[in-house]
Amino acid sequence: MSQSPPSVFEPASKPVSPFSFGRVMVIASSSVTQLVRMKTFYFLLAFAAIIVVLMSLNPPTTPAGVLSTIKRISFGTMDIFAWLFAIVSTALLIPKDIEDRTLYTILSKPVRRIEYLIGKLLGVLFVIAVSLAVMYGICALALFSRESLYIAEELGAMQAGAQYSAEEVEAQIALIQQQGLRLELGIAVLASFLKSAVVASVTIFLSTFASSSLFSIIISVLIFIIGHAHTMATSFWLYQTDNSLLVELILKCVKIFIPNYQLYSFSHGIIQGEAVSYSLVWQMTGLTGVYLVVFIFLSLLVFIDKEF
Amino acid sequence: MSNCAVEVKNMTKVFSKGLKKSDYVVAVDNLSFEIETGEVYGLIGPNGSGKSTTMKVALGLMAPSRGSVKVFGFDSGDIRARNEIGFLPENPYFYKHLTGAETLKFCGKLCGFRGGELKDRIAELLELVELEGAAKRRLGGYSKGMLQRIGLAQALIQRPRLVILDEPTAGVDPLGSRQIRDLILKLKEDGITVFLCSHLLEQVQEVCDRVGIIFEGRMRREGPLAELIQINEQTSMTFAGAKPQLLAKVRDLIEAESDATIVEEGHPKTTLERLFISLSKSEKEEEERK
Amino acid sequence: MSHFKKIPRTVVILVVLAAFGLTRAPFEDRLVRDLIDTKMVVPPPGMTVLDQMGQSALMATLGGLRPLVASFMSLRGYENFSEKNWDELHQTYQVITALEPREEFHWVNAIWHLGINATANMELDTKIPEFERKRRFFNYAQQAIEFADKGIDQIPDSVEIRKQVAEVYREKLKDWSSAARTYGEIKDLDGAPQYAERFHGYFLAKVPGREREAYDYLKGLYDKGADQHLPTLIYEVRRLEEILKIPYPERIPEADLNRNRARPQKPKSKPLPGGVIIP
After folding, report:
1. pLDDT exceeds cutoff 90 at B41
2. pLDDT at B54 over 80
3. Contacts for C269-277 with beta carbons within 8 Å, 24 or more apart?
4. B128 CB within 8 Å of a chain A CB
């Protein structure tokens, strides 16, 4: 071992703050590196492959119909990738740290457990955001190229022989454009992101007490599915008078304990070309923030006493 | 304020085994000891004696069921206590996808280091543990000894006042083991408190100022090493170049005394470790000469 | 702090979850209503549809995968169409429209497949006995009309659904009264094609006993100006003048008959890229 200057051992540890956003970001960026080096971004290739296959399909319908199909399948796939990724990656990260005992190393440094939890969540959310942005980019490119092609073809077909008035041509083009690439589609991507954020926070909570990653994944998927039955549960609750006590109890539990994922289906309306209500989007964003805070708090309640 | 780096006071740690309240196991039972600032303290005992539990409580990874553990006056769960501690676990647990330098960067950032200061500190520590050449290799490809050294480097990253080492030489070859021992002595020289847990008694014997022997969760003996191991009623002498005639004279002298006897006589033996080191050194010198 | 430690953590977590659930429930219920009202969220399918849904479609509803499953089921619908498996197609479209009731395109397709393709197949498929063919012809047409009714319930302003069902009335069922009624609805909607107002009159003119009503309507259109003086309109007005014995001074002038003859006729169907024909 080489001779080293005495300064190496000079006791001079830095003062430590009670909560540091810097430390949260260090954990977050390490989670991002971890996910990237686990080659998780490869699923983007699978998405690109789906889009390529989709582009080669020629369903028996109108140009607007084709665009609508491309849009619905690609956004649907994007949504699945996002929430599934949120569940799997979150369910793997913390148990993996515990299993590999990397958590020992991290928690023996001046790091608060809440900082660790928030850092992990932010890391996953960052990767989801980047993935969604890339997928949206691929999808936008595909939609735009198809849309331009159709518009050119329609214009050619309609203008040949001057059979159609300018308004009719315009109406036909507008029909295609409505199903094509529109700015509002970004809001549909936001909806997927918000949903994935809630899914990730619920999975983090589950993984703080779960015995295995598999358990967290299965329970989180179950909660996800049940979370889409809120409105159905409400209508049962309100309109079915002959419910047994048990059914009623179950429905009430679903409403109270399970997050309402159905709300996040507002992307479906946007994809179908409905006008976006920005005030509702803001409310959804706010609600998501509250979900994150509550579930991180619940995770901390379990995690703070956890012994390693 | 006392001069204690670590103060363990009536610490008991109980683990529940099942759902029933009566179903529990006592891992540490009413343990008390203190580690003075600047000393090297060794806690020794067989596997399952409660050493690791004590250490985990000191690191804030566990909370004591009763009693308290303070580090430089802070409760062991306090983040300020952890800011003073550098910890080297038995098997260094790091992200295998990170390189050596990235691991130090990660740990340094967690301790509040940034920019040039962090860069310098990383370079300094990589040089100290002789891993400059492997700095850009992922930890997945490191040997056990290299992992131990990078573990030591990360433990020292924030210039801690207390270094906790859990079985620091377990699974490391004698050369590496010697390097770690030298480093512990160097830490001591620089006024850093070292809290060492080990079941390798010889290793503890070589570096520790004071030792605690723990067994089944209880402290059995504690004190300065020299005091603990010395056999007061016996004396040993080692001669060099003594001829058989001289040795016969000494024997006669002792036998003349009524209450003195020779307990053991023979040639002092080197340890296997020293033999290994001297052999590998001479091998190296031979190669260099060639 | 010590008191807090004594309370089992599970209880604290359940209390927090319940409190959060109870606080957010009214807000979320209102939000769901608003989202449904602004058509951003699809209301849950009715109980009868739930019964008809297969397991996968039900899971899709629960799992938020509606658009995706609906898209794949549309492909299945196309397969049913290629195989002329009309009963299966009917079921497929019931699920598709339940999954995405706000997607006009699914309703239009369902009406087109059942009302036009299935009925055409019944007219041509000589392997099936004639009596059975006729019965099925009317069944499929009726199923198309049912889809149209449900579709209009979901999308009250839909021009496309009405246009498609009007075609079924007009071309298949020769139900002039319903065709006239449907074009009458279309003409008052936003985005209605110009021909809808004329078609309303043309088909009204074919309904026995409603000639006077048709004449007044078409004459009203004629009087709007030269733009409306199209050959079919003039022909229909003349025909009705004859039937209703309208006094000569009140009849439309002779010369007008040839007025718009030079204007090229539009093809009945518009050719689209890929040889796709809008029915």
Report:
1. yes
2. yes
3. C270/A157, C271/A157, C272/A62, C272/A63, C272/A154, C272/A157, C273/A63, C273/A150, C273/A153, C273/A154, C273/A157, C274/A58, C276/A60, C276/A61, C276/A62
4. yes
- For residue A124, the model assigns a pLDDT of 95
Sheet with B85-88, side-by-side order of all strands: B85-88, B162-166, B193-198, B40-44, B210-215, B218-224
| Residue B188 contacts A, CB cutoff 8 Å | no
Average pLDDT value over all residues in chain C = 81
What percent of chain A has a predicted confidence (pLDDT) above 90? 36
Q: Which residue has the higher pLDDT, C5 or C128?
A: C128
Q: Residue A165 above 50 pLDDT?
A: yes
Please check whether residues C246 and C156 belong to one and the same domain.
no
Contact assignment for C65 to A224 by CB distance below 8 Å: no
Q: Which CATH architecture has domain B4-229?
A: 3-Layer(aba) Sandwich (3.40)
Q: Is residue C197 assigned to a domain?
A: yes
Q: What are phi and psi of B164, to 5 degrees?
A: -105, 125
Q: For C139-198, what is each residue's pLDDT tens digit?
A: 999 999 999 999 999 899 999 999 999 999 999 999 999 999 999 999 999 888 888 999
| C218 and C242 housed in the same domain | yes
Q: pLDDT, tens digit, for every residue of A14-27?
A: 677 888 899 999 99
**Pick from A212-226, A293-307, C240-254: least confident:** C240-254
**Dihedrals φ, ψ of B71, to 5°?**
-120, 115
Task: Write down which chains contact chain A via at least 3 CB pairs under 8 A.
Answer: B, C
- The residue ranges of DSSP E strands in chain C, in sequence order, are none
Distance between CA atoms of residues B184 and B193, nearest Å: 9
Chains touching C by CB (3 or more pairs below 8 Å): A
- Do C251 and C135 have their domain in common? no
* A77/C35 CB distance under 8 A: no
At B231 the pLDDT is 72
Residues 190-209 of C with CB under 8 A from A: 191
Given this model, what pLDDT does residue A243 score?
61
Q: What is the sign of the dihedral through the CA atoms of A201, A206, A212 and A218?
A: negative
State yes or no: pLDDT of A133 exceeds 70.
yes
Domain assignment present for residue C10? The answer is: no
C231: in domain: yes
**Cα(C10)–Cα(A224) distance, rounded to whole angstroms?**
22
Q: Are residues C244 and C130 in the same domain?
A: no
Q: Which residues of B touch A23 (CB under 8 A)?
A: 109-110, 112
Within a 10 A sphere around the Cβ of C265, how many other Cβ atoms? 8
Separation CA A190–CA A142 (nearest Å)? 19
Q: From CA A74, how far away is CA A139, in angstroms rounded?
A: 7
Residues C42 and C130 in one domain: yes
Rounded to whole angstroms, the Cα distance separating A153 from A146 reads 11
A89-98, B174-183, C36-45, C173-182: least confidently modelled range: C36-45
Residues C139, C197, single domain; the answer is no
Q: CA-nearest residue of chain B to A6?
A: B190
Task: Note down the domain range covering C155.
Answer: 29-165
Task: Average the pLDDT over B65-90 and give the result.
Answer: 90
Residue B66 tokens, joined = 């009763």
pLDDT at C4: 46
Question: C227 and C156 share a domain?
Answer: no
Q: Which residue has the tokens 């090297």?
A: B40
Written as six digits, the tokens of B227 are 């005091």
- Residue C21 maps to a domain: no
Number of domains in chain C: 2
The ipTM estimated for the assembled molecules is 0.82
Which SS3 state, helix, strand or coil, does residue C102 take?
A: coil
